[in-house]
Design goal:
Layout lengths: L2 H29 L7 H40 L3 H25 L3 H14 L2
């Protein structure tokens, strides 16, 4: 697979993660006001997706795609090898999105837990 195709897939991957994260945040905000265990909440959630989220995605789609492309292009320029730069940038973006999803969706603080793990691991020597 050539570098252009890999860059295209990397842009789509990061954009999908950002869009999904935005949906998660909007859902969290709405769930504060609505009981999640009702059919009304299901209906309201579906309406939010249709009336609010889809237009927001369309508006931010170009911005997200352009920002992601710029980010990946910058990483490729910084790296001596463009292909390695692309994969490092994708890994870093995926890692940041992993931390954000863990915090927002599961209330897990990855950085704190990792610090505690390494402290426990290296403190036992």
């Amino acid at each position: 697979m050539n570098l252009r195709t890999q860059t295209k897939y990397a842009v789509y991957t990061i954009s999908v993660l950002i869009a999904s994260f935005m949906r998660l945040v909007v859902g969290k905000i709405i769930s504060r006001y609505i009981n999640e265990a009702s059919y009304l909440s299901v209906l309201i959630d579906m309406l939010v997706i249709i009336l609010v989220f889809i237009p927001v995605i369309r508006i931010f789609e170009k911005f997200t795609m352009k920002a992601t492309k710029t980010y990946l292009d910058s990483a490729k320029k910084i790296s001596k090898n463009k292909r390695k730069g692309l994969w490092w940038a994708l890994f870093f973006a995926f890692f940041v999105m992993f931390i954000l999803f863990a915090i927002v969706k599961y209330n897990l603080n990855f950085i704190k837990d990792a610090f505690e793990y390494f402290k426990l691991l290296f403190g036992q020597t």
